[in-house]
Amino acid sequence: MKNILINVLGMTCSACSNHVEKYLSKQKGIIDVSVNLVMGTALIHYEDDLDIDTISKYVNDSGYQYGGIYKLDDEKKDHSEKYLIIFLILLIIMMYISMSHMIGLPFFDIIKYSSIYTLLLFILTIPFLIFGKDILIAGIKNIVRKSPNMDSLVSLGVIASFIYSFINMILIINGNKDLLHHLYFESCSMIIYFVKLGRVIDYHSKEKTKDAIKDLVRVTPEYAVIKTKNGEKKITIDEVKIGDILISRSGEKIAVDGEITKGEAHFDESFITGESIPVKKKINDGVLAGSINYDGVVEYKALKIGPKSTISEMVHLVMNSLNSKMKITRITDKISSYFVPMIILIAIITFIIYLILGNSFNESLIHMVTVLVVACPCAIGLATPLAVVTSIGTLSKNNLLVKSSEILEVIPKIDTIVFDKTGTLTNGKLEINKIYNYSSYSKDDLLNIISNIENNSHHPIAKAFKKYLKNGLEINNYQELSGIGVKGKINNHEYILGNNKILKNIANDKQDDEKELLNKGNSIIYVLEDNNIIALIGVRDTIRSDALDTIRKLKNKNFDIYMLSGDNKITSNIIGKEIGITNIKAEVSPKDKIAFIKELKNNNHCVIMVGDGINDAASLVEADVGISFKSSTDIASNSANVIITNDKLKEIMTLIRISNKTVKIIKENLFWAFFYNILMIPIAIGLFKNIKINPMIASITMMLSSLTVVFNTLRLRRDKDV
Ligand code: AMP
Q1: Is 420 annotated as catalytic?
Q2: Any long-range contacts for 460-469 (C-beta under 8 Å, 24+ apart)?
């Protein structure tokens, strides 16, 4: 059996990816297929005698296109962004041409040159239709599939306005100048432009998520050092075979999952296990690909390579979560699913009734199209994207980088917030938590002595002291006491720092203080000066300064709060207790974290996950909203929807507040966008004998709805409270 990951082009929704998956899995020689919509890829397991050409033929036969074998650095650029500026200029020109005569700005006499005026607007609209053809096609496809969405509403409005304006253009050229105000070409262009703008914003968020997977793959090094009979040799990771003996030195990453055969060292495995402190590994202990060797030389036997490795499993988890995340429906899609069929129905009924009442086919048709045109709120194209763009701007001023705009609509539904512990609620590194100083030295001088000695040590604990080093002291007879601590002489005084094993034969009357430190989750470092205990130092991962306050505020707002940790139960419970979180799940793997979030979602909870490590990446994607920090690992920040740029937990409150306000404004915008136009429908149908459809009034209501939307949205920027 062979595996291949290929690009599949042309898939736009989950129906497409399901179709490709089903079609391919039925073909001869294909054993199993998994299609990923976000990545635009298909992972295919196939029999040895099948070749790539046949696979590419299968993909093309399924109705989509084979896009070659997937490469990590495939650069697929969306050019819409570049075009947006050109089209904005074009849109401003169109607006000027069509509006200038209404507000008295200089332009040529449109009555005299009516044909040129009409043709000009028509020609300028064509590029917009081409620019937005993907939206128009998708919109019509969704109407045919009986699941109209925002695209359908846009397509209907654009196509109806365009056809109506086109017919009127022909009539104007033939001399009917009364119809000059019956042109809606600029509305078509404007709707397409704003919907495209929204698309570009969303495209970028998806690209970021793809980066997360690329980063995850990059966690493992490209090379490994193999031990051979003739010495050491550097080989690429693909050349490593199961059973090879590889060598790892301090500062290097482990290349493949394996087992230590010689030596010992501390390894940072926080990305998989969430354990905050590097763990010591010796002969027969397992090591994980991607973990960092802190301080030793080890030889290890390669056990799991390629798709079976732990890191590949994590890539798989992230990919699976991505697919399930695509189901968010926007408010506009929901409204459109009711609004579109209703308008189509009203338009058809109008057409039939006009025919029954004895009107000509042409006249009945014109009434039908008028209903469609008037019902298409030009402002709907504006309502959501404008609010989203404004809100994203306001959020970024408040230290929040929002990558996928859909989540703004999801946040008001959130009822549960899940926090990772290490690096999220805590600072993620060992720090001095408490000092009991029994010596005559000041605290600073004591710390300076200790730091000078620890400065020679590579042990993870030593890092907690290095920042307290003030002035260099001469150290004599420095010595590492393996598994115990370190020792050295300063000014003829001997200092020993380490765990309680250094206390052998030494009087210890500090039991109360020891107990206090242990109860608070500290590891104790004993400090001896000439065999007397002069200090006890508690080191531990410390709590973020604003964690307590943030959790309290979130609880006051009735959110359910959970803490997940790969760390042990004792440490997790101590931290949870200090922060005020009672729902704690300790000793969980990345897989358990995802399962937990899935379970919450299955029980109809809407979930935010806050995390910072590689081991949180998949759960950040799985949650309805993933939040990470600027200082987090690249993979976590690429997997998250929101990044807190000042690394402050309290910004979660800001995010929730601004998102709530944004959704309120989007709803108001949509109300106004629809309100004016719905008001016009009875008039367009011709229900009122005395008020015939007046195109001037129609365009004024359209403008009013757009202006209302713009001013309503600007409140998002002005409001100091947000
Ligand atoms: P190890 O087995 O090397 O992780 O060390 C076991 C214990 O020895 C640690 O948990 C510390 O309590 C102590 N220790 C080792 N190195 C140091 C150091 N540089 N400073 C203080 N304590 C240390």
Answers
A1: yes
A2: 460/266, 460/277, 460/278, 460/294, 460/430, 461/430, 461/523, 461/525, 461/539, 462/486, 463/429, 463/430, 464/429, 464/430, 464/431, 464/432, 464/539, 465/432, 468/432, 468/444
